[in-house]
């Protein structure tokens, strides 16, 4: 349990002054907490995966690097976080293509954290400052991520006890924005 507490404390500290792009100026750490909650709803109990849920945005959104995560935790957690980190040095379009490729080739552990991250972000859209059309665009942008991870998740359903109920939840949230996903590989 210490690994999980260390990851939470580290993430809260690194994201301390960041806020969500929503109407109520929510601390960024609330998003991280929601991701971990969704992972637990999926039936995930593995501390490396839960720790990665807390840490998944630290490389991309703070001055944290892979070695910091490795020092805090272990190689498995650091590798999951690295898979979930976009290379912000790349041009946006190329970066998105590269990111989806990494998600598709990533471990199911990284893919399940991405699933929880997407669900948390989509459920939080209703609290955002975005216009209705921008919320729809945000949901549409997440379809590529989902398409990148769905085969890996489907192939590893045995490791994700509540996958079916949570995939329904994700599908329902996508539908709120007029976006249909094909959850079967």
Describe what this molecule looks like in 3D:
There is one protein chain. This protein has 185 residues and is an all-alpha fold. It has one domain (2-176): Hypothetical protein af1432. It has ten helices and no strands. It has helices spanning 2-14, 28-41, 47-55, 58-61, 66-72, 75-83, 92-105, 108-124, 132-155, 163-176. The longest helix is centred in the C-terminal third of the chain and has 24 residues, at 132-155. The chain starts with a helix and ends in a 9-residue tail after the last helix. The mean pLDDT is 93.
Label this structure with key terms.
Hypothetical protein af1432; mainly alpha; about 180 residues
List the helices and strands and how they pair.
Elements (H helix, E strand, L loop, with lengths): L1 H13 L13 H14 L5 H9 L2 H4 L4 H7 L2 H9 L8 H14 L2 H17 L7 H24 L7 H14 L9
Helix pairs in contact: 1-3, 2-3, 2-8, 3-6, 3-8, 5-6, 7-9, 8-9, 8-10
Summarize the structure.
By secondary structure, the protein is mainly α. Helix content is 68%, strand content 0%.
Q: How much helix is in the residues?
A: 55-70%
Mean pLDDT: 93
Q: The biggest beta sheet, please?
A: none
> Secondary-structure element sequence?
HHHHHHHHHH
Taken together, the total number of domains comes to: 1
Q: How many angstroms does the end-to-end distance come to?
A: 35 Å
**Structural class by sheet pairing and helices:** mainly alpha
Q: Rg, please?
A: 15 Å
Shape: globular
CATH-defined fold name: Hypothetical protein af1432
CATH architecture: Orthogonal Bundle
In percent terms, what proportion of residues is strand? under 5%
Q: Give the full name of the CATH homologous superfamily.
A: Hypothetical protein af1432
**Which consecutive residue ranges, at least 5 long each, have pLDDT under 50?**
none
Q: How many runs of DSSP E, i.e. beta strands?
A: 0
CATH class categorisation:
Mainly Alpha
Number of helices: 10
């Amino acid at each position: 349990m210490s690994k999980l507490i260390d990851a939470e404390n580290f993430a809260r500290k690194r994201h301390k002054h960041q806020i969500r792009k929503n109407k109520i100026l929510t601390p960024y750490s609330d998003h991280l907490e929601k991701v971990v909650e969704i992972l637990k709803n999926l039936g995930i109990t593995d501390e490396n995966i839960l720790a990665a849920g807390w840490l998944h945005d630290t490389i991309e959104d703070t001055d944290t690097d892979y070695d910091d995560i490795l020092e805090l935790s272990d190689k498995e957690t650091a590798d999951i976080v690295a898979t979930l980190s976009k290379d912000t040095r790349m041009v946006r379009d190329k970066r998105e293509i590269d990111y989806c490729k990494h998600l598709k080739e990533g471990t199911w552990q990284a893919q399940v954290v991405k699933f929880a991250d997407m669900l948390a972000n989509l459920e939080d859209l209703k609290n955002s400052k975005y216009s209705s059309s921008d919320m729809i665009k945000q949901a549409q942008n997440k379809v590529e991520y989902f398409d990148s991870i769905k085969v890996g998740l489907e192939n590893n359903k045995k490791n994700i006890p509540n996958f079916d109920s949570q995939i329904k939840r994700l599908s329902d949230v996508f539908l709120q924005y007029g976006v249909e996903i094909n959850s079967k590989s």
